[in-house]
Amino acid sequence: MSEQTLARPAATGFDVNAALLVLLKARTFIALILVFAFFAFAAPNFLSVANMVIMSKHVALNAFLAIGMTFVIVSGGIDLSVGSIVGLCGMVAGWLILNGIDLGLGFTIQFNTFEICFLVILVGITVGALNAFLITRLNVAPFIATLGTLYVARGAAMLSSNGETFPNLNGNAAYGSATFRLIGAGDFLGVPISIWMLIVVGLAAAYIARRTPLGRYIYAVGGNEKAAGLSGVRVNRVKYFVYMFSGFCAALVGIIIASQLVASHPATGETFELNAIAAAVLGGTSMSGGRGRIAGTIVGAFVIGILSDGLVMMGVSAFWQTVIKGVVIIAAVVIDQAQQRFESRLALQAQAALGK
């Protein structure tokens, strides 16, 4: 009887380790609250409706790329080419709207908005497939393969216009392309269309990650590629999917930016890959693969987006903004590593307790 009485406080008492683990797992959400609260007081007009709308559009762009990046990193890879894919896809959209496709002999094919978006997305998926081909068939390391396609895609974007901007992408009502600008500037029920697109893509990605065999295969490949292959997982197909999905997300961003600006420039998307990686890592995605959540990544994208816009509204130098983002990335990785070590230590302690 006395032993049960003594054991009861230990069973029902406050567990410091468990509380610390909860805080570590919720670090991204806590960071979001702190960053939002800070800029709500420090930045003028931060809470205005106009600023919230603009900021939500900026967050959506980063979130699209971060969702695709999460799949890639969880599978054990990296995609440095997404920013260049954004620029290339924007230029493809501009080319199709302004010029169509010249077949020669005076024949030119013009496209409506749906067809333009379809072709642009096809370009993004194709570049993603090229990344996967280099990695799976030619055994090129993901870092080198995607670094190479970063330069190829950016160079192709530059060549498409000799480095010039495609302006006035208002489209032509006669060809059905006049609605292109609504993708970035339009809204539905007062919410920007890009946010609705993010909701659809985010829910689809979360469903794939958590509710489908493909999602389990992605985590398995990132956790232990050789073991996954021996258990029957088609590793190469999984890698094709994650890189093609990343290219798809980058193509959406290229379309949205071209639509918002009603113009496309080949330099669009530079360093976007860094923000995507930062959002994914900040959201709990492990750079060693095998671990990450879409919901956490989206929260991480909000943190990065609010941090960027808030610093701009406070008049902080762009140079210092870069430094601060770098510190955030380093801190996120350090905390992630600390969480993994802490979880391992708790697991060993639990095993030791069971052994006794």
From TrEMBL:
One of its GO terms (cellular component) is plasma membrane. The keyword Thylakoid does not apply. It is a multi-pass membrane protein. InterPro entries: ABC_transp_permease (IPR001851). It is found in: Cell membrane. The chain crosses the membrane at residues 29-47, 59-78, 84-109, 116-135, 188-209, 240-263, 294-312. PANTHER family: ABC TRANSPORTER PERMEASE PROTEIN YPHD-RELATED (PTHR32196:SF21), ABC TRANSPORTER PERMEASE PROTEIN YPHD-RELATED-RELATED (PTHR32196). This is ABC transporter permease. The lineage of its organism: Bacteria, Pseudomonadati, Pseudomonadota, Alphaproteobacteria, Hyphomicrobiales.
